[in-house]
Amino acid sequence: MKKHNIATLLLAASLAASAARAGVPLNGLQGTGGIAFNPVAFTAGTYADDDQLVSTPQFGAWYTRLDGADIDWAAASAALSVAKRLELSYGYGWTDANQYGDDSISTHNLGLKLNVLPDGAFDLGWLPAVSVGGVYKHTDSATADALGLDKDGADFYAVATKLVANDVLPFLVSAGVQASDEVVNGVVGHGDYGFGWFANLDLIPVSWLALGAEYKSGIDADKVENHDYYDLHAAWFATPKLTLVGAYVDTGSKSGSRLGVGDGFVLSAQYQF
Q1: I want to staple 129 with a disulfide (CB 3.0 to 4.6 A). Which of 16, 119, 134, 215 is the partner?
Q2: What is the pTM of this model?
Q3: Per the domain annotation, does 191 fall within a domain?
């Protein structure tokens, strides 16, 4: 069976077995199969048949403009999976933060995800997919030195995801928990470990469109406490391989006890081979 994708399940529910379109997971901002900030339990890549061991890869590109903080953040990534269970990903990020002491910041993220339970395991249609994973992160930010932060760190997470197909309004729901030492998604650096949670909800009113919201609680890395993040997004499944995304994102204010980098807009292009 091919990887989970929104349009395939929707069309199956409506008894129209036509061409599938692109869908979840996307390559997130750090490269992991998910939405933008958060991973989902489904693994990246597609399979032509059950005999294929390694999936075809998928690629993602993101551009984020945070006007309040005057920050431009770009990211590109690739991901694939092995035996439909093990996902491998790499993401590169570039951030223009001239007014904060860094001419530019480069980040490197290596991700690993293990699908513990596939969607509907044990012939239980209501059972969500469940995965665990981690992301090793490196930043070259000079601000990390100034704040006494490390330049290397890692996230660890567990996530459950369910894609519900029905004749009225198909939807995807996902939630998970995370242990992380990140400061501003690891772009600024890494402190001590804290715990948080995250969630996604996407509605699919038609086979070529998803409308959703994403939330990620701020990690208290001891030296710096991150603000909560959320976004509102729309994804257009333009072709069987191409997905285009537009979103509004809010990462919180720079003032107060928690660190945020303002709000702005996000654009993304995703391609699945």
Answers
A1: 119
A2: 0.89
A3: yes
